[in-house]
Every structure is written in C-alpha cells, then in structure tokens.
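Quick one: structure for this chain?
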Amino acid sequence: MGKRQDNPKITYEVDPYNRLIINKSGKESELARFRQVLDGRFKVDENNTLTYLIKAPTPQGTEIPHQVKLEGKLALDKDHNLCLELNKWGRKTLGDKLTLQGEIIDTSKNSIAFSLATRTKENTESIYILQLKGAWQADENNRLTFRVRKERGSEDILSFRGAWEINNQHQIIYQYEKAQLITKKKQIHTLIFQGYWDIKDKARISYVLDARSGSVFDFKAGAGIFKDKYIKYEIGIGSSRQEEAKRVLTLFGKWKIKKDIGLVFEIEYGNKEIHAITFGAEAKLTAKGKISFELKNEKNTGLSAQLELSREMLGGDGLAFLRFLKSKDEAAVYVGAGFSW
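Got it. Here's what it folds into:
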C-alpha cells in the first residue's frame, strides 16, 4: 500500500492587479505545490457576497471552476482598500485575508462603489466597478461607517477612521490620502455625501442621506446654540480623548413660521436646493418686544434649546402669528404641526 496523502489545503491571495491566486499544498512530499494566478474579475451578488469570475482558461487537471465564491467578513484597511476575511468553516484552508486595491469613487445614499484595476497575462489593463449595497450610519464615536447588508439580516461594517469635515454647502466631506500603485505618489481623495441636516433629539444632530432605508448619520453632540442666522454644534470624532477631533458644525439659514407646520430653519445646499429643519416651540413675547422660543421636536419633547428672534426676522406667516401672540398677553403659545392660530 502506498502512503496516504493528506487532503491539500487551499489558500487564496490577491496580487497587486486584483487577480485571484489559488495555492494548494499538503504535508506529503508526493503532493506537489500548486500556485495559479487566475485572470478574471470580482463581482458582488444581491447578498453582497464576493465571487471571482475566471476568464482565462486553466491548465487541464487543475480542477479550478469558472468562478470562485468567496464568503467572509468585509472591512476597510487603513489605506481604504476593501478587505475580505474568508470564512474557515466547511473548507480546508488557512486563514485567508484578501485585499482588493482600489479607490472609493461613489458614496450614494444606499451604496458604496470601488474602482478596481486589473491586468491580463498579455498586459492588457482595464478598470471595473464593484458596488456594495447597504446603509450609511455613524458609530458610537461619530465616525462614518457603511453597513453592508448580508444574508439573514447580518451585516459587515466598513469603518472610516478619519475625521470628516463640512464644506461651504453644508455637506459632509471625507478625505483620505493614498499612494498610487505604480508611481507611489500620494494623492488626496475626497468623498462628498449628498444629504440634509435634521434635529430630532437633545444633544444629537443628524445628517440624512435616505430616511426610508435608515441611511442616516446620527451624531452625538454638545448642546446646540440657536441664533437668528445660524445653528451651531460641537461634535467630537474619535475613539478616545487623545485621538478625538473636535468639529464645530455651523449651519447658516433663515428662520420662518409656517402655519400648520411650525418653526422652520431653511438651509441652502448645493445647486440652490433648500431644505428646512422643522421644530415645534413654545413661544412668548419678551419685555424687549422680541419672541422667545423654547424648541421642541415633532413629538413635543423639549430639546433643551432656546431661540430669541426679533419680529423683523419672521417672514411669511410670521406677522399673523405675531398678532395672535399679542392677543394672548403673557400666555405662551405652542407653534407646531397641527396647531394653527
């Protein structure tokens, strides 16, 4: 009888051109080591599972399929490459971690897209797009994350460890520096998130990308400051006091009172688009002839925030509200959804 050969162990790698490499090895000396670079491309199915589609023919007897399904946990590395730590259950493999080198090119409301470069054996280069579906959310340290939706309700988390900024159009932007693959020259990449700001709770402010799908950055913040032309919050970003970056978020806009809606703060975003933050409020006249507002959310819960406006600041339905407020003498009047005057 001949020696019993151990079943080969399989490992996977990705080369610098995002091509899958399969390794087979065994303990017995009779088992020759096999290593094959496979021309092909990665794709993503409806459950955000990665598959590698093999294009080039493989040598006879290698038993390599036309596609390789790669199940595991997705993450971002420090260079913002997409990484996959493969599941070990049910297969004879070593601990495999695949890194797909590319650029993040799109951050839509329910997806993130990576641009990947590849090269064939004939040195033909091409670029293709890999798009993952999910939701954008903030973590407990106010950092940006993308929650990749997987089978049976599970999710993988892509964490953006750097601090985000606000541009002059009130949009969240995120920048990271990355060296190019060939030249090693460092380049700044800027991601712009298209959304709008909202305030629903005390000591929190949200940036909404898509409310229906839960794609919302819900940030913990200090107490808000509400003035006649702006709203200001201080937000800490980071995992510890030593690493925490402070951001002062200032939203510039106009206050208005609208019948059956409430007190609104209108903000202009890119392309002259206007979006309003809506508040309920207890309003009363001050001794100086101004209007004092105790701000509340849509559930009539206090936000621990006060605002004082002159009568000249209130346009639209503001004059009608002012006359109504004067008719109530010293009594406070609620303004908000469902309450008319």
